[in-house]
Amino acid sequence: MKFENKPLTNNEYVLNWIEECAALTNPDRIVWIDGSEKQIDELRAEACKTGEMIKLNQELLPDCYLHRTAVNDVARVEARTFICTKKKEDAGNINNWIAPRECYKTLKKLYKNSMVGKTMYVIPYAMGQLGSEFAKYGVELTDSIYVVLNMVIMTRAGEAVGKYLDESFIKGLHATGTLDPDNRYICHFPEDKTIWSVNSAYGGNVLLGKKCFALRIASFLGKTEGWMAEHMLILGLQSPDGEIKYVGAAFPSACGKTNLAMLVPPEYYRKKGYKVWCVGDDIAWLRVGSDGRLWAINPENGFFGVAPGTNEKSNPNALAATRSGTIFTNVCHDLDTNTVWWEGLNDRPPKHAINWKGEPWDYRKYDKADKINTSGAHPNSRFTAPAKNCPCVSDKFDDPAGVPLSAIIFGGRRAKTAPLVYQSFSWQHGTFVGSIMASETTAAAAGAIGVVRRDPMAMRPFVGYDMGDYWKHWLDMGKKIPNPPKIFHVNWFRTDDEGNFIWPGFGDNMRVLKWILDRCDGKVGAKRTAIGYVPKVTDINLEGLKLKRKTLKELLSIDTESWKADIANIKEFYALVGKRVPKRLYKELEKLEQRLDK
Length: 598
Ligand code: GTP
Ligand code: SPV
Ligand code: MN
What we know:
This protein is of the alpha+beta class.
């Protein structure tokens, strides 16, 4: 096998696997990604030459680039995502499954000679800080420069990883192929530590370190090795005395993780000295520490964030993070300034612009009811920004030990039913609360938008094994954490009869975080209800906010009838998950029903 540059490992197992993949895909060249500035610059230049990327205004946006994916390739495709365990029942009823032998056979046909005339890039990368107890290593093979440049931002990639590669590494093979949506596959072989992705070039399907490894494969590893991989942001809330308490929060895709992770407290709190530090915005790996607490790291190194709605007011920290070294995907291109724009950035849409599809765009034709066809930026357009760019990045970001969690927060997008916040009675009840999570679907995945579906722990698309076993793992972990975080549920998305959000959200979510951490410290009371502990109306601080107590009362109210109606749906969902749903969760469901009937 001929590498064009020096291989970054001598490990035979790794080299043999690369050789096998190269024999199958047949690239003209094979290049190791060492991650050096020189190499990255050359790749950027090459991508600009072929039109794969557009170099943006380097004075306003240094080292920033724009990329457009194919029009039919703009989000994760859950229907084309498979967990290929030997036994179907190990993948469970929620995941799509193909037998490994059959899947390898089908995909080999798609990979065969797919890299003829192209370069295969070999990306060694780490999820987590190199050498840390949490860290895991992978290699992604890809024929896409866009993937290389994103992986270099999103993970710790390059030369330094070489010495950590051994037989335990995760093997990822990505080929752009023909982008044929009917032959698009994102396949996981957890028993073989292997990920095969073909015929897509959209982030979540092809940045194999992210959802594929850090959630699907990692959740599988976590179950066997006694730790957890979760779709959670991690933030630290600093109080005026300087103490920082950490929380992890799991919300489904495009439901507010990046926003909460970088929250700017309202002026009232800022003046007192409160501050939020961002450790992670999408994925958390959790381990029990020797002190008996649950510790968390963010295995990623960058943010792959939703662009629309990000602005100076909603998320100034995310916006600041995108001002250099960032790749924008499927946003609107402002030709006058050679910069980028998206819906919700400001109310000055560009006059001479190219939309996410690559066509001239007339902002006057924008129609909220038909965003896909009339918006400048795709609703799931994204920025890939280095975490280090974020003004509120935590000084624990690189700490190999991670941070200890005081609270875990679940949340979803629910127009009705779920109150602004409630606290579970225990770890077991909290696990139940996670298991019955539901949310309206968003543009982050292909398919209908705004449909309520059950999305346990925000992990429905990301658990690499049976959902019932996953819940059992949560319950088992509870037994192994002497001092576990308290578990809460929030909903920023309650609407009035006209469909407007009642809660201001964003920075004002701080008011809810404060109640949550005060509960953890035993500093504030609560009302015991059928679903859990709910704040007293006077216990959420509304200082500096134009929100009536009456509205807050409504936000905190529990509509028993809609909860009872939800029970039927929960039972259906548990039945769908099937035989492996733990008895302890059925017990919790029964108790909830009894409390609602009282
Ligand atoms: P993924 O990257 O897909 O996992 O998404 P995410 O969970 O990080 O979601 P993100 O923070 O990017 O928010 C997605 C959308 O929700 C954006 O359009 C935000 O403007 C909106 N959003 C975030 N927080 C709030 C909030 O508190 N209230 C309301 N009404 N909208 C919010
Ligand atoms: C999500 O969809 O939850 C994301 C974006 O964070 S993706 O990388 O596409 O999964
Ligand atoms: Mn996500």
